[in-house]
Amino acid sequence: MSGAEEQVVYQQLIFRLQELSPQGRQWNLEIPEGLFGDAGFGEVDAPASLCKGVQWKGNVIAQGDFFGLQGKWSTELVRHCVRCNSEFALYMEGDCSRHFQLGVEPDADDAVECDSVAPPGSVNLLDLLREELWLAWKPMVVCSEACKGLCQQCGGNLNRHECKCSQHGSDHPFAALKNIRFNS
Fold first, then answer.
1. What is the largest distance, in Å, between two alpha-carbon atoms of the chain?
2. Is residue 93 within 8 Å of residue 77, measured between CB atoms?
3. Which of 103, 115, 176, 181 is the most exposed, fewest CB within 10 Å of its CB?
């Protein structure tokens, strides 16, 4: 992506609520991996290891004293399986629903939970998207439900090859327990 193309995308990602037209604002963007991870743009850190860009579409409209944002996003991240430690692409998607109010601190009794934004109400869609991705982040993921994990003796990946280790050897720390008999 050229510098001029990046500037156009940057301009699409920031808008002011006070300047919002009565029809609102809609977007349907493919945010490239490099732009999503650009630490110089925005205040929220981006999760590392995107496989591809992020599809981000939505709209924001005025709703009385509030501004309502609805969006949908999807992407793939490079993750490591907690069972076998293999790297794999994890597809993630989510819905986003936010409410903003200009210059007023929200009252705890308000029926609508909203973010207070100082006038003119600058909103950075990339920061919102990064927040949504962090909120959807799962700390422990598996490559598949059928993942066999690692051999507890040799550490080999049981998904890739049949392990030749003796699972029932007498040198196993719990080998002595196999001879215990319980009376019922």
1. 79
2. no
3. 181
Angle of CA points 45, 125, 48, to nearest 5°: 30
Residue labelled with tokens 């196999």:
178
Q: Mapping DSSP to helix (H, G, I), strand (E, B) and coil, where does residue 127 land?
A: helix
How many percent of the chain have pLDDT more than 90?
51
d(CA 27, CA 147): 39
Sign of the alpha-carbon torsion through 144, 37, 97, 139 = positive
Tell me the pLDDT tens digit for each residue of 76-89: 999 999 999 999 99
pLDDT-derived band at 169, boundaries 50, 70, 90: low
C-alpha to C-alpha distance for 40 and 13, rounded to whole angstroms: 14
Nearby residues of 26 by Cβ (< 8 Å), 6 or more positions away: 57, 58, 59
The ranges assigned to domains in the chain are: 3-136, 148-184
- The average pLDDT across 45-73 equals 91
Supply the pTM of this predicted model.
0.78
Residue 8 reports pLDDT greater than 70: no
| Cα–Cα nearest to 35, from 82, 63, 66, 2 | 2
